[in-house]
Amino acid sequence: MLKIEENQRVAIFIDVQNMFYSAKHQHDSKLDFEKLLKLISRKRVVVRAIAYAVETEEIDQSNFFDFLTRMGIEVKKKPLRLRADGSSKGDWDMGLAIDALMISEKVDTIILVSGDGDFLHLINALKYKGTRAEVASFTNSSTKDLIAAADCHFPLDKDILIENKVKSNNKISKKPLKKTVKSNKLNKTKKGQ
Question: With a threshold of 0.70, does the pTM exceed it?
Answer without folding.
Answer: yes
